[in-house]
């Protein structure tokens, strides 16, 4: 069976600066893939390039193909892309208040997604389907509320309902739980998982939270400096990291070692477009040598490998706790629903 998403040689640049370099990635049918890395690594730019939502002065080249779409997404006209976004390809953004229309009731916004793409005909039928979708994300009776009347977790669930409204082949989530407290985060993750599983949709999940990746994803790609530096099955990468950057990320996430100082990666992420030639991590790596001034080759297969001149030993890592601690059932603790009519007291406890 062919991949749902195939990205080859994706490069994103602005003027004379290259922000994302030669990214290759695939997502198979029903597969859940995580994309991790520090802020400024190029994760969100990669997602926006796939969706065709880059700013006007930022340009992408390479190839992005989506199953069921008979044309290349890179360079496609906006008219053609608008037929794909929201139908075959959908996204849950990090900040729901900027993703939602503050002047429309949330039920109408969910219904609009179906009406625009013609998956349901008739406004009455679309509103009924929207109400059913909101019920499924545990938002009973909020269809007539406005976004400002909902809590942060409730707004994010509305965005999830909109993204899943047309049963997309691929759902992209860009830090969908960053601004939420832990209990609400677990609920939103659970709803995303239920939604993609029920529709047999593929998932590309962007996050800083390694425990979330270990819980949600089957395979992970590690980005730094606009490049994919390591990829593979989650448990393999998290228990036996080969790239020195992946090793540093995992060590810095090991919060259970109270008997020693928490390791950190020295230095800071360079500004976008100002990463060094060769290995993009070499200016922060304790193992760097003159050889690292040349671009390291990819070692392994297309879906599992790394790009490092001095990889960590292939004999297990001292930081398997990220995987172990994440193997907890995702909570489905419910938030209180907002009232069906506008009210100044409609803020829920996790706002």
TrEMBL record:
<dbReference type="InterPro" id="IPR017871">
    <property type="entry name" value="ABC_transporter-like_CS"/>
</dbReference>
<keyword id="KW-0067">ATP-binding</keyword>
<keyword id="KW-1003">Cell membrane</keyword>
<dbReference type="InterPro" id="IPR027417">
    <property type="entry name" value="P-loop_NTPase"/>
</dbReference>
<dbReference type="InterPro" id="IPR050388">
    <property type="entry name" value="ABC_Ni/Peptide_Import"/>
</dbReference>
<keyword id="KW-0472">Membrane</keyword>
<dbReference type="InterPro" id="IPR003593">
    <property type="entry name" value="AAA+_ATPase"/>
</dbReference>
<dbReference type="Pfam" id="PF00005">
    <property type="entry name" value="ABC_tran"/>
</dbReference>
<keyword id="KW-0547">Nucleotide-binding</keyword>
<dbReference type="InterPro" id="IPR013563">
    <property type="entry name" value="Oligopep_ABC_C"/>
</dbReference>
<dbReference type="InterPro" id="IPR003439">
    <property type="entry name" value="ABC_transporter-like_ATP-bd"/>
</dbReference>
<keyword id="KW-0813">Transport</keyword>
<feature type="domain" description="ABC transporter">
    <location>
        <begin position="5"/>
        <end position="250"/>
    </location>
</feature>
<protein>
    <recommendedName>
        <fullName>ABC transporter domain-containing protein</fullName>
    </recommendedName>
</protein>
<feature type="region of interest" description="Disordered">
    <location>
        <begin position="315"/>
        <end position="351"/>
    </location>
</feature>
<dbReference type="Pfam" id="PF08352">
    <property type="entry name" value="oligo_HPY"/>
</dbReference>
<comment type="similarity">
    <text>Belongs to the ABC transporter superfamily.</text>
</comment>
<feature type="compositionally biased region" description="Polar residues">
    <location>
        <begin position="341"/>
        <end position="351"/>
    </location>
</feature>
